[in-house]
Write the structure tokens for this entry.
Amino acid sequence: MKHLIRISFHLFFISLSSFSYGQMTAYNYKREIHDISDQWHKVILPNELFGKTSNDLSDIRIFGLTTTNDTIEAPYLLRLSKEKTTSQDVAFKILNVSHNANGYYFTFEIPTKESINQIKLDFIQNNFDWKVTLKGSQDNKEWFTLLKNFRILSIKNKQTDFQFTKLNFPSSKYRFVRVFIDSKEKPKLKVASIAKYNSTDGTFKKYSIKKLSTKENKQTKQTEIDIELPLPVRVSHINIGVSDTFDYYRHVTIKYLSDSLKTDRGWKYNFNTLIDGTLNSIEKNGFQFSSTTVQKLKIYIDNHDNQPLELNTIEVKGYIHELVARFTEQGSYYLTYGNKRAARANYDIERFRDNIPKTLTALNLNAEMTLEKEKIQVIEPLFKNKTWLWTIMAVIILLLGWFSIKMMNKKF
């Protein structure tokens, strides 16, 4: 019977807990939302919010209180101001492959009138460093230069596997294009692709750096860079500027502080990898990764037996995060967050993105407020003092003994 009662109480509190987590009081913070005038609006998330939410932002909710004091939830979509890219392959055929004392020529014919701005080359061999000149022509007689002395490179060894063989140039319409490679060795072209590549820039927040320190670890032959931001924010891009003008390629690893634990021997810090890449003198050293909440970063540059690179600037930035929300009832609405046990919300509007208006008005948020938790009433024990408990037990024992003796006397 006692076991059954215990199970019943346990199930009751589980159901009570599940119910409470669906309410506003299950979250730690809230900000009142102002100026709601339409059905659809956007809410730009402030930087101060990210350090108080789960890393995947799954615990963000928009709760409302109607005029009849009913609690409602406004559905939303999380949207990032990312870059938009498209690539359309253009049909072509290899017209001829030739060479002379200067180098090797690859001529492509493009039968359509599509404009192009990118050619990708893939070669059988590795470990080359070639200069490329790209020209275009309408009649295969008069040629116009699109790229000159453009460098393509391949490095493959135990430390790295790096290739840069993509030709980007201004959009052009030519019937013929010719790639000239200045090489004594015959380039063995495995495959090529020609495309029209379109890209629109994303919108970013650039974050100031609170602390930055660099040291050379002679044992590991690495440059170690420690970066601390003023507060936890959503980061997706890191640009590393190098002052040196000589050629270089170095493996680089970027990590972030994911959590810390205090032990008897001090604090233990756990760093997770954001991205592995190559720092090189061929292209811009910008590294992109999934948007992540970070405050402390570590960058490791593998120098091996080379002299350390001289760094000048490090830029940390991230996308703007906004909620696209739908408001269907009048009421007072609040942006709430701070509940690591909350699961990601599942709203119908996720399946109807095309029905959301293109232009949305941004709403204003009030200052952050801490949500007060309902205090759980603790049932005090009937007797706090153990002396009283022992006294009562002694009286009970004496009474039982007296009744026992009395019953025995009656029998005799």
Observations:
- DSSP finds two helices and 26 strands in the chain.
- Residues 1-22 have pLDDT under 50 and may be disordered.
- Residues 62 and 339 are 13 Å apart (CA to CA).
- The helical segments are 2-21, 386-411.
